[in-house]
Each structure stands twice: as structure tokens, then as C-alpha cells.
Design goal:
The structure holds two protein chains of two kinds. Chain A is mainly α. Chain A is about 55% helix and about 0% strand. Chain A is built from 31 helices and six strands. A two-stranded parallel sheet of chain A has the order 1-2. In chain A, helix 2 runs parallel beside helix 4 and helix 15 packs antiparallel against helix 16. Chain B is mostly beta strands. Chain B has one domain: 7 Propeller (Methylamine Dehydrogenase, Chain H). Chain B is about 10% helix and about 40% strand. Chain B is built from three helices and 28 strands. In chain B, the strands form seven sheets. Chain B has a five-stranded mixed beta sheet with strand order 2-6-5-4-3, with no helix packed on it. In chain B, about 45% of the residues are buried. Classes of the chains: A mainly alpha, B mainly beta. The interface between A and B is medium-sized, with 27 and 27 residues.
């Protein structure tokens, strides 16, 4: 640039005012480095004013702008381009100059040369390109005829670079082509995928459908026919098994007498429905279904109607405006039993198959189809599959099937063998607690004949009978039951215990029936403590807990190490204290609890603030943390004395002439940099800040470089670390050479 | 000019002198002329152009799209504005069109009724200009980079063909067969040229950095190979063979009198050789940027007093004086690499074709009327009346 300027001044020095020219350069630089999307109109006007004076200024301006256009910064280029376009419409001379070098101009603004892309920042570069293309088109329409090269350039852009001047994106053909190719490739991939998926669907659809039908049938088998699965979601069906009456206590009390007289089996219902009167209770009980599913709403409605008369008659309560809240759980609970075992098993398998195999596949199909945009029927079919699968799975969820823990079963002996008068009856092998006990064995276990909890059988007829006899004494089986319950070895006792624990408010009858100290209470106490106790890993010390060990920590030591040659049988026993201790003791590390640091360093800093660091013991900048007041002065006098001493010592370390204040004075006087800011200013001012940015308005190109990669790169590739690495590698190399020096193979290289 | 005219009138000067002076002046004033256009037919880069020497009227061009176009250069409209029309075209719709890029086209030196084109589709076709059908098609094993017919040959009608193969082939138009093979190169032959002085002398340039000069009557081998160091073994770096360049040699051109041979190579150098003995004249042209992987068509001016060389150089055409190596000017007008240029000897015009699909005509600037009294101001005024686009348009608020 400068060489050119001198050239200009030589050729046209007499016609060009030096001051004006300098001002023009200054203005151009200011305008181009402003970094703003629009030029400052006042400055631009001034530029135009200068340029208007003579062609020499225009020439000078042309060269200035061309150098600015060549800068590797899109903002500078954009501003320069705007100035160029301003002058282009004004001056013929400028047009001649610019058109003469139009190739370069296009290179710098429209990016005609793919090897020289526009410089960052990207958005500005894109804007520059679009603006430039638009402007070139405008120029072409106004000046295209007059300036041949302009027309040529326009045609070049249009026909060779295939710039679509109407396209706002102003993409060149190559870019468009690339985009197209990418699209095509994607399409091809999708097509392949779709084809594959369609084929898969063809193959698998039958299987899936089969699965679906099967699982649906299973469900139908498990649930009664009238129980429509689709109603599940509407939460209408009542479930009497879980219905608990949360009515006012007095009502409960009034009915409790009835309950007392109820047969034992009804009490054994896991979750008891509190009947309002015996009649209704029987009515309900008859309605009870296999799976303890319960009658729907209608039933309960009917009940209510029935209630009205019976209620008064039976309870003697005149008002029947008691509010009765029924918590009707919508959940179905299905338990696996022997009868439905096969069905449930199949269903389980099917469920697994559907959820792990079919559903993901179908989801994948849907995904592929939606992405690739296939004809609708295909997609619809896939979606249908998906929804039906999901529905089936949902149904399955709703059933809440309680799968039995799988256990091995021994096949029962054939019927004939039963007749043998064997003392021992063959029983199914049991592992621990048996959730289900066959009816014929119940008595043996001390259980009531029927537990409706587990079985899905209709309630035994004897359930009904006690309803008539209100003041029925304990029947024989009942008596026996209570007896057995007393016996802790009997299963009945355990069951009872469970029941009691399960029911938080045991009915008052239970205590009457039991008549013994509630064992649950005693049991619960240690268990609570157990919860609190810490869990420690098992070790040797626990293994020998409470035992005295004669051999603890003793090691038999052979005095001779020889393999064959054994001296006299001298076995020396050495006692190892450490080992012995290990046998008997246990280390428990006490980590303590983390306590956050509350104090601050509070050392006064050069900027007037106090150090905010919260180190526990020592601040990395200001040494050990000592108590300080709000101004940052040490509260302990000895601390302040020590600090002062340290300060003195540091001062003394620095030679006199490096006293920063003195140096600053000298610097001011001489105007030379002695490095005063370096010596002491380290903590005060960042070094980088001193260096003024040349053009603060331009966006910083280097800022974008601050990525994790670049930061890592800075660390990894800095010279010292590189040197370190090479040193280590050289050393390793050398080691290898030293080790294998006597092998010719390594000695050579 | 007036001096030359009076001297000519008085018979003091050789008639050649005036002619030379004027043509030199014209060549020095070559400029992209606003009035002269060449039809844009090619949809891809232009690889080669050739102007016939009989009338100087028709120009052939071959493009990278395989299309061959014949232009009429003569302006009969009596207006300064003229667009060179395409007379006929072997377009993509033609059944005889070259399938791939046409690398070289050349008029038959003695008649415009025939021309020869060679292409990357491994063929060379001899065309009948009237019917635009190939009269003869030569098939080769590799891409054909170049071919050349001797402009002065009377005793033979051979076409030298440089292909991807190392051998230079000689095709005889009389028999329509390949009659001879010149062996010697070790790389692709990028350029071949017959001497305009001796009809049996042929120069060939190849990617093996060598330029060989042949006498086609001699069967045993080349006459000599050009050596850039003139046999100075100390400079030649341990190579046994003589090299003309330190890269591919892709441009070859005899001067009009055939005494000198110009070569360009991808080492960005241009060299001038004495064609009689193969000595390097050591003219320094400076750096002549050259990145072409194919042949480059350079040309020299005719009947100027210092002769000029026109070399495609990036996106411009460089003009050098032949014997001093001085860069006269750069003709900048193309927007992409220039591949070929051709000098029109009668009108001192230059036509150049480049990858930007343009054929540009560089026409000498007409001497401005030497009318003293009107001065420059009037000139500016008259220009302004001619074209309003040349006017300055300073708005009034900028004072």
C-alpha cells in the first residue's frame, strides 16, 4: 500500500494535497474497520467530497479500498465493498479502475475462486456475498453495456459459476450440486431401508398377528367374558376385594358384632369387604367372582337400593345419610394359580416376545417409513401394528398378573398309587413357604379349608351359613384354628402373624380370638434396631467372634528352605502380632462429615476488594489464612507483625532500581518501556490488557478459536511439553539401545 | 506515423518498414474491445482456437464440451460494433460430435474446406467443412493431447499426433493410415509442432520434461533433444538426459520464420531455443505461471519489428517481447484460466479462449483523432454523449 502511495504522490503529487490524501486514507481505514453493517454516512460523505475533487483521489481511494478488500476479515471486506459500491455509481474513473481489475474484485467479494473462500466471520461473509451479487447485477443493468469487462464478469458469474441471481442464497452451482447429491444419497439409503423394512414386515406380520391373537385369547381366558378389557381404562369396575370402608367408626362398631359372628373363612379374605348387613354381605359374596373381580357398578347400585330398607331394619339407625366413601381401586390383580398356570405362562412368554422382539422392530419400521415418506397404506399398516401391540402390552400391564415364583414341581403320583396305604403321602416338594396349599392338605397345615386370597375358586358355601346364626359360638374348626394359632410351629400362626402385620388396624375381634400377647410388637422392635445398625463387611474377626484362638497370629516357620533335605523336626512358631491383631480387631475408618468452609481469605487486594477465596487452611495467593477484620487487617497482632516482616523481606529481594514507582517515573520521563508493568503489575493488571486492540470494533476472529480442542492443543503442543515428551521418548529409545546393544540388529540403528 | 508515411511516399523506406511499425504499434495497443464480441456457444471451457491463414476470416474453436464451432471474424456491417457470428457448429446434437473434450483443432493449411480435430475420446477426426461430417477418423489407444499439420508441407501431408502414449504418431492424410511412430519420449506427449521453415522437421514436447526435435525422414530417432543447460554438466543435476524444463513441457511454438522455438513448462518458465542447433538462448522471461496439466497453446506475433509472444498465464494473457524477454503487458479479461490464444496476423488481433467459456477478442485501440484544437475536454464531452454510463454522477449534496 505504501509503495503505491508513494508512486501516486510522484505521478500526481502536484495535483494532490498531501493532507487531504492522508485524511482520505484515515477515513477509509476508519470506515472499513468500524465493524458495523452500515457505513457512517457523515464520514462517507466526507470521503465522497474528497474524491470528487480529482481523479487522483479516486485512484488513491481505489487502491486503499482494494487493499482493505484483500484483508482477511469479512467485516472489513463488507465495509470496503459498501464504499466501493458507493463510488462506483458516482465516478466513471473509479468504474474504469475497478472494472479493469474486476476478476480480483469478484474473487474477493463473490468468492469466485473456490480455493480462496471468504474469510470469517461466516455470517458477515455470507452477507457480503449476497450483497455483492446483488450489486453486480445492478451494475450490469446500468453499466453493463458500457463496460465490457463488467458484462463479461456478469456472464461469467451467471454461466460458468451458475450463480442464480434471483436466488437469495446465492449459491453457486457446485454448492447446489453437492446439496443435491447429498439429498440423493440419503434418499437412496432410505429407499434401501424401506425396502428392507417392507420385506421384514411382510415376513413378520403373520407372526405378530398370531402373537396378538394368542395374547388376546389368553386374556379373554383369564378374565370373564363380560369383563370387557376395553373398559379397563375407564376405571368403572368396582373391586370389592380392595374396597375398604372408611366410614365413621361408630358404624364400624355397630357392625363389628356381626363380624364377630361371621364365619372364619370370610374373615380370611385378605382384604375384607365390610358388609353393611348380613344379607347384603351374602348377596355380595355370592356375586364374588373367581378372581375376586368384582361386580361392576350396577351391582353396587343394586346393593344400595337393597340397602335402604335393610339398613334401618338391621342396624336400627334411622338416618341413612351416612356418607360412605368407597375407595375403588381400578387395579385388577390376577394371581397365578394352578388352573390358569398354563395360560399365564403362555401369556408371559408372549408378553416377553412382544415387548422385546416385535415392538422394537415395529417401532423401527414406523421410524423408517416416516423418515422416508412411503405410501400411506404401508405406513398405516406399520402404525396399526404398533398401536395394537402397544394396546396388548397395556392390557397386560393392567392385568397386574402376579406371577408365581417359578419352582420345580415333582409330578404327583398317579391316582392309583394314592390308594396304597402308605404312611407317607407324596407331597409336592416345597421350598420354604408355600403360598398355595392344596385344599386337601389344608387341615394338616392348620389352615382353614379355604383361603380365598390365593384361590380363585368360588367361595365355599359355608361362607353363607354363619350369616343366619348371629350368635354362633366358636365352631369346632374355628376352635381348632385358634388352638393352632397359638402353636408357633404351626403354619397357621405364621400366617396369622402376617395378616396382623398386613392389616394396620386389626379388627377388635382378632385380639378376642387370639387372646394372647401380640407377637408382632415384639418382633417389630428388634427389626427396627436392625435397620439402624450399620452394615459392615464380613471379616476374619467376625468369623472368630467371641472365640479365643490359640493359633491366632502364629506362623509355622521352617528354618530350612531346602527342598529335600529336612533337618530335625524343628518347627518354629513365630507369633505375628500384626496377624493376631487382625484376627481380633477391626479397623473402621471414620471419615467424618464434610464441613463447608465458612471463612474467607479476606486479604486486601490491589483493586480494593478482599480476597474471596474460601480455602480451608491456606490461600494459594496469600498464604495461610488468618483471622482478619472487615478491612482485611489481621486481628491477631502477631500475625500482622509476621506479615509485615514478610513484606519487608520481599521488598529487599527486589533491587532498589526496580522499585515500580521509580521505574514508572523514569518511563514517563524517557518514554521507554523498562518493564515496570511486568515486575510488579502481575497481580494488578493482566498483561494482555495493556496491549490495545487495534480495531476494537471488529469482531475478533481469534475468539472463535477458543474451543476445548484448541485449549488442549495449546497445552499439548506448547514447546516445553513437547520437549519433555521428546526427552522421555529419547530416553526410552536410548534405553532400548543400551539393553540390546550387543544385538547387531539394534546396534545398527 | 506521419514520418513513416512521408518516407514511404518518397520511396525512402522499404514498404515493410511502415507495415512493421504500424503493426507493432497495434500489437502494443491491444485491448479488450467493447465493440468486438464473439458469440458464446460453448457451455464449457475453450481448449483450442485456430484461425485459417488463407483468408484470415474463419476461426475454429474446440471446447471441453466436445463442441467445435466455426466463427466468421470479418466485419462486413460497416459498423464498429460487431459480434463474431458462429457460422456453423458441430454441436452436441450432431452424431459426429466428439464425445469428450476437444483438445486441438486446426484448419487444413491450404484450404478452408477441411479441418482436423482431436479429442480426449481417443480419436482424431478430419472434417469436411461444408457438410460438417468427418471424412476420416483415426482411433488411438489413449487420449489425444495434440496434433499438428505442417503449414508449409508440399511433399507430404502428415499429421503428427501426440497422445497419452509415449510414441508420437504420424498419420498420413493421403492414405488415411498411421504410417510411422516416433519413439523417444518417456511420457505423455503434450505438444507437437512442425517447423514452418523445414517441412520435415518436427518438435515434440512431453511430460518427461524433454523436447525432442525430429527429422521425420530419419528412422533411427530424434535429431537432438533440447537441453536447458546447453550441455553444461555442472548445472545439470546428475541426470543423464537433457531436459528442456524441470517439469512437464506443455507449450511449444515456432517463431514465424522457424528459426526459434519457444517452450513453456510447468516449472513456470518459458524458454527460447535456437531451432537449428537446439541451443538455449537463455532469454529470461521471468516467471510465467503455468499450471495446466494439458497442452497450452501459445502464439507469436507476425511481422512486428520486435516480435511478441502471447502466453496464457493464469486468467490473463501475458505479452512478452520475444528476444529480450520483457513483459510488455498482461491482457486481463478472462475470469478463469486461459488455455489458448491465437494471433490474427492480418489485423493484429488476438483471440483467447479460457475456462470461463469466453472467447475474447483483443483488438488494437484505434488511434485517437489527432485534432489538436479540440483538446481533451471535447473528447470527454463527445464520449459522454456517446454513452451516458461514462458520466460521473456526483450528487449535489457532496460539495
Amino acid at each position: 500500500m505504501w509503495t503505491y502511495c508513494t508512486g501516486v504522490s510522484i505521478t500526481s503529487g502536484k495535483r494532490m494535497d498531501h493532507a487531504q490524501r492522508d485524511k482520505l486514507s484515515e477515513l477509509v481505514e476508519e470506515l472499513t474497520t468500524s465493524g458495523e453493517p452500515q457505513l457512517n454516512p457523515n464520514k462517507l460523505k466526507e470521503v465522497k467530497k474528497i474524491c470528487k475533487v480529482s481523479n487522483d483521489y479516486i485512484e488513491h481511494f481505489y487502491h486503499l479500498t482494494m487493499t482493505q478488500l484483500a484483508q482477511e476479515h469479512a467485516e472489513i471486506r463488507l465495509s470496503a465493498f459498501q464504499m466501493v459500491s458507493e463510488l462506483f455509481t458516482r465516478s466513471h474513473h473509479f468504474r474504469v479502475l475497478l472494472v479493469d481489475n474486476f476478476q480480483e474484485f469478484l474473487d474477493l467479494t463473490v468468492e469466485t475462486d473456490s480455493d480462496e473462500p471468504l474469510p470469517p466471520p461466516k455470517e458477515v461473509a455470507r452477507k457480503l456475498k449476497t450483497v455483492a451479487i446483488k450489486t453486480v447485477q445492478e451494475w450490469q443493468t446500468t453499466y453493463g453495456e458500457a463496460y465490457k469487462k463488467l458484462a463479461l464478469g456478469y456472464h461469467f458469474l451467471k454461466q460458468v459459476k451458475k450463480v442464480d441471481f434471483h436466488d437469495v442464497q446465492a449459491r453457486t452451482l457446485a454448492e447446489r450440486k453437492r446439496e443435491e447429491e447429498r439429498q440423493k444419497r440419503l434418499e437412496r439409503i432410505y429407499k434401501d431401508k424401506v425396502e428392507k423394512a417392507t420385506k421384514e414386515m411382510e415376513d413378520a406380520s403373520e407372526e405378530i398377528e398370531e402373537c396378538l391373537t394368542e395374547i388376546n385369547n389368553c386374556m379373554k381366558l383369564l378374565l370373564p367374558a363380560e369383563f370387557d378389557l376395553s373398559d379397563l381404562d375407564t376405571s368403572t369396575p368396582a373391586n370389592n376385594s380392595t374396597a375398604s370402608v372408611s366410614s365413621v367408626p361408630n358404624e364400624k362398631a355397630s357392625t363389628s358384632s356381626d363380624l364377630d359372628e361371621q364365619p372364619c373363612c370370610s374373615k380370611d379374605l385378605e382384604l375384607q369387604r365390610e358388609p353393611k348387613n348380613p344379607e347384603t354381605s351374602t348377596a355380595t359374596k355370592t356375586n364374588e367372582e373367581k378372581e375376586e373381580e368384582d361386580p361392576s357398578d350396577e351391582d353396587s347400585d343394586m346393593e344400595d337400593v337393597l340397602d335402604e330398607d335393610a339398613f334401618i331394619r338391621n342396624t336400627g339407625l334411622i338416618s341413612h345419610k351416612y356418607s360412605l366413601d368407597l375407595n375403588l381401586s381400578t387395579d385388577l390383580k390376577l394371581k397365578e394359580t394352578e388352573e390358569n398356570e398354563a395360560v399365564v405362562n403362555t401369556m408371559k412368554d408372549l408378553h416377553k416376545l412382544l415387548s422385546t422382539k416385535h415392538l422394537p422392530v415395529v417401532q423401527y419400521w414406523v421410524q423408517v417409513f416416516t423418515k422416508a415418506g412411503v405410501p400411506e397404506p404401508l405406513l398405516r399398516r406399520a402404525i396399526d401394528f404398533k398401536s395394537s401391540l402397544e394396546r396388548a402390552l397395556q392390557k397386560h400391564e393392567d392385568l397386574h398378573i402376579d406371577y408365581k415364583a417359578r419352582h420345580r414341581r415333582v409330578m404327583k403320583a398317579p391316582e392309583g398309587s394314592d390308594d396304597d396305604d402308605d404312611d407317607f403321602e407324596e407331597v409336592p416338594e416345597k421350598e420354604g413357604f408355600e403360598p398355595h396349599i392344596p385344599d386337601h392338605l389344608r387341615e394338616e397345615y392348620g389352615l382353614e379349608p379355604s383361603t380365598s386370597v390365593a384361590s380363585k375358586k368360588p367361595v365355599q358355601p359355608q361362607v353363607k351359613c354363619p350369616a343366619t346364626g348371629a350368635s354362633h359360638t366358636l365352631s369346632r374348626p374355628r376352635k381348632r384354628a385358634t388352638d393352632e394359632e397359638q402353636d408357633p410351629t404351626c403354619a397357621a400362626a405364621t400366617l396369622r402373624l402376617f395378616k396382623q402385620r398386613l392389616l394396620p388396624q386389626p379388627p377388635s375381634t382378632s385380639s378376642a380370638a387370639g387372646g394372647h400377647v401380640d407377637p408382632t410388637y415384639q418382633a417389630s422392635d428388634p427389626s427396627e434396631e436392625r435397620d439402624k445398625a450399620p452394615v459392615i463387611p464380613f471379616g476374619l474377626d467376625l468369623y472368630y467372634w467371641g472365640e479365643e484362638q490359640p493359633t491366632a497370629g502364629k506362623i509355622i516357620k521352617n528354618s530350612s528352605q531346602h527342598q529335600f533335605w529336612v533337618p530335625n523336626e524343628v518347627e518354629e512358631e513365630v507369633e505375628n502380632k500384626e496377624l493376631a491383631a487382625q484376627m481380633k480387631s477391626r479397623y473402621i475408618t471414620f471419615a467424618g462429615r464434610f464441613q463447608p468452609v465458612k471463612h474467607r481469605c479476606k486479604t486486601p487486594m490491589p483493586n480494593g476488594a478482599l480476597c474471596e477465596r474460601q480455602d480451608r487452611v491456606k490461600c494459594p495467593f496469600h498464604g495461610p489464612i488468618i483471622p482478619r477484620d472487615e478491612l482485611g487487617k489481621p486481628t491477631n497482632p502477631e500475625d500482622s507483625v509476621r506479615l509485615e516482616k514478610e513484606e519487608w523481606k520481599r521488598r529487599e529481594d527486589q533491587p532498589d532500581w526496580r522499585d515500580p514507582e521509580l521505574m514508572r517515573d523514569i518511563e514517563l520521563a524517557t518514554g521507554e518501556d523498562l518493564g515496570s508493568s511486568k515486575t510488579f503489575g502481575k497481580g494488578k493488571k493482566g498483561k494482555g490488557k495493556d496491549k490495545k486492540k487495534k480495531y476494537p470494533n471488529l469482531s475478533d476472529l481469534k475468539k472463535g478459536v477458543n474451543t476445548s480442542r484448541s485449549r488442549l492443543g495449546k497445552k499439548v503442543f506448547n514447546p516445553s511439553s513437547m520437549r519433555r515428551v521428546t526427552d522421555v521418548m529419547n530416553k526410552m529409545d536410548k534405553l532400548k539401545h543400551a539393553k540390546f546393544a550387543n544385538q547387531f540388529n539394534y546396534a545398527l540403528n | 506515423m506521419l514520418g513513416f508515411l512521408t518516407a514511404r511516399q518518397a520511396g525512402l523506406d522499404d514498404p515493410l518498414r511502415l507495415r512493421r511499425a504500424e503493426s507493432t504499434r497495434r500489437v502494443l495497443n491491444l485491448e479488450l474491445n467493447h465493440d468486438r464480441d464473439v458469440d458464446r456457444i460453448h457451455s464449457n471451457g475453450i481448449n483450442t482456437i485456430d484461425i485459417e491463414v488463407i483468408e484470415g476470416r474463419y476461426m475454429l474453436s474446440g471446447g471441453a464440451d466436445g463442441v467445435i464451432v466455426v466463427y466468421d471474424l470479418e466485419n462486413n456491417s460497416r459498423k464498429p460494433q460487431y459480434t463474431c457470428k458462429a457460422v456453423c457448429t458441430v454441436g452436441r446434437s450432431s452424431p459426429y460430435v466428439h464425445r469428450f473434450s476437444v483438445e486441438t483443432v486446426q484448419w487444413y493449411p491450404h484450404d478452408t474446406g477441411m479441418f482436423v480435430s482431436s479429442s480426449f475420446d481417443k480419436t482424431m477426426k478430419v472434417w469436411d467443412t461444408e457438410t460438417l461430417k468427418p471424412a476420416e477418423v483415426f482411433q488411438f489407444e489413449g487420449n489425444v493431447y495434440c496434433h499438428h499439420m505442417s503449414p508449409i508441407a508440399r511433399k507430404h501431408s502428415l499429421i503428427a499426433v501426440g497422445t497419452k502414449d509415449q510414441k508420437v504418431q504420424l498419420c498420413d492424410l493421403k492414405s488415411g493410415s498411421r504410417i510411422q511412430v516416433l519413439q523417444g519420449h518417456r511420457g505423455e506427449v503434450l505438444s507437437v509442432r512442425w517447423s514452418p521453415r523445414y517441412e520435415h522437421i518436427l518438435a515434440t514436447a512431453s511430460t518427461d520434461s524433454r523436447v525432442l526435435v525430429w527429422d521425420v525422414r530419419r528412422a533411427s530417432g530424434s535429431l537432438f533433444s533440447l537441453d536447458q543447460h546447453n550441455g553444461d554438466k555442472s548445472k545439470a543435476s546428475s541426470e543423464a538426459v537433457n531436459t528442456a524444463h524441470n517439469g512437464r513441457v506443455n507449450g511449444l511454438c515456432f517463431t514465424v520464420d522457424g528459426l526459434y522455438l519457444l517452450t513453456t513448462g510447468t516449472d513456470d518458465r518459458m524458454r527460447l531455443w535456437n531451432s537449428a542447433n537446439g541451443k538455449n538462448t537463455l532469454v529470461n522471461y521471468g516467471k510465467v505461471s503455468n499450471e495446466s496439466r494439458k497442452g497450452l497453446k501459445i502464439t507469436v506475433s507476425r511481422s512486428c519489428s520486435p516480435e511478441f509472444v502471447f502466453v496464457p498465464c493464469g486468467s490473463s494473457v501475458a505479452v512478452y517481447t520475444l528476444h529480450t524477454g520483457e513483459l510488455v503487458t498482461m491482457l486481463r479479461g478472462h475470469y478463469n484460466n486461459v488455455d489458448c490464444c491465437q494471433f490474427h496476423p492480418d489485423y493484429q488481433e488476438l483471440y483467447s479462449g479460457g475456462k470461463d467459456c469466453n472467447i475474447l477478442a483483443w483488438v488494437p485501440v484505434v488511434r485517437p483523432p489527432d485534432v489538436e484544437e479540440e483538446g481533451t475536454a471535447a473528447k470527454g464531452g463527445s464520449q459522454a454523449t456517446v454513452n451516458p454510463a461514462f458520466e460521473d454522477a456526483w450528487s449535489s449534496d457532496e460539495d
